[in-house]
Amino acid sequence: MRKPITAATLLLTLVAVAPATADAAFKRCRPVTNVFEGSRYEGSDLYRIRAQGVSCRTARRVVRRGTYRAVAATPNPSGYVRVRYRRWFILDDLRGSVDRFSARAGGRKRVRWLFGEI
Length: 118
What we know:
The radius of gyration is 19 Å and the shape is globular. It has one domain (26-116). It has helices at residues 2-24, 56-72, and strands at residues 27-29, 45-52, 80-85, 88-93, 99-104, 110-116. By secondary structure, it is an alpha+beta fold. The chain starts with a helix and ends with a strand. The mean pLDDT is 85. It has two helices and six strands. The relative contact order is 0.16. The protein has a six-stranded antiparallel beta sheet, covered by helices on one side.
């Protein structure tokens, strides 16, 4: 009699945990193309945008505005740029041939993207 109760409890626990892990996954968003038209960065796109806890519309706005701010900022000696856009904290890793960005805000809101030429 004890085993069916334990199996049912386990099943209910797995069902309750499954949606939480599905929400935690990053979703893909469309790239932002030629955002710096008329500048030295013309032709460089913001691509491989991944969002967690926000819509793609919000993620693309954070990507565009965060990149503007990070490009204007001065990197520290280790090759990182840290800036803020509204409530978002943005980190730009300049090491390598492509800039790797990550942004985070309150809760589980996260956005990641790449900047440069493919």
